[in-house]
TrEMBL record:
Domain of life, source organism: Bacteria
UniProt cross-references to SUPFAM superfamilies, sorted A to Z: NAD(P)-binding Rossmann-fold domains
Family named by the database record: Belongs to the short-chain dehydrogenases/reductases (SDR) family.
Name this polypeptide is given: Short-chain dehydrogenase
InterPro entries to which the protein is assigned, alphabetical: NAD(P)-bd_dom_sf (IPR036291), SDR (IPR050259), SDR_fam (IPR002347)
Amino acid sequence: MRLLHKTIFITDSDSPSGKALMQHLAGEGAHLLVNSTSGGVDIEAQRVYCLNAGSNLKVVRLDLCHSAEVMAMLDEAEQHIGPVDILIHNNNRVETANVETCAEDLFVQVMDDNAKSAFVCTQSVGSRMAKRRAGKIIFISSIHAEKPTGSSFMYSLSRSAVKMLSKEAALELGRYGIQVNTIELGPVEGDEDRFRSTLSTLYEDVQYKIPSTVMGTYNDLAEAILYLATDASRYVNGADLRLDGGFLLHYMNHKMNKPAST
């Protein structure tokens, strides 16, 4: 068990990625603090799994954009499962909108959910880690920190903001023995609909734009998280791990690795 007795804070446990992380990390001996917008309803199966695996589990429901709320929660959580050793920021809100017509309030909501929450959690958890001179912060981001979606410009903006937050935090918090890294996740099941665009063909035949033609899964993400969460990555700080199977290397649709029968 590579994470035995480590306390891990996952910011969005209700998502498919959050559910995969809960099971994967609990299976490695971690104790979990998870933020659930459903108050735990949508993760009941994962909760039972974690408890059966011997994991201490605390489910919270709070607005991660309010630092006072986050700090109070961390104070309480420390009494139940101990201080946070690893923060996994997993917020990933996608909304379809373009630059010309996007409503201002929707822009702010996406930036808050994806980027401001990352700052608040990093500041709140990072200050506590600094006092202990140890800790790891992992941002689950997207290849769209670098590549436009053609369908959700503010999503790309929020991912780019987190990319630079990670590097600034790695520089500052690294002085206290804290590692801060980002995983830029590429296509997984459902992304062809999530990022459907009238401007770009990026997600058309997305599977065949991956050299192996094998789509990634949230279990692949969990394995990458496990590497960054353990001592195996002790010399990795301020890095962006692109987890896309080579998707962004594709550049000509007529050269796709697509079976002739399709």
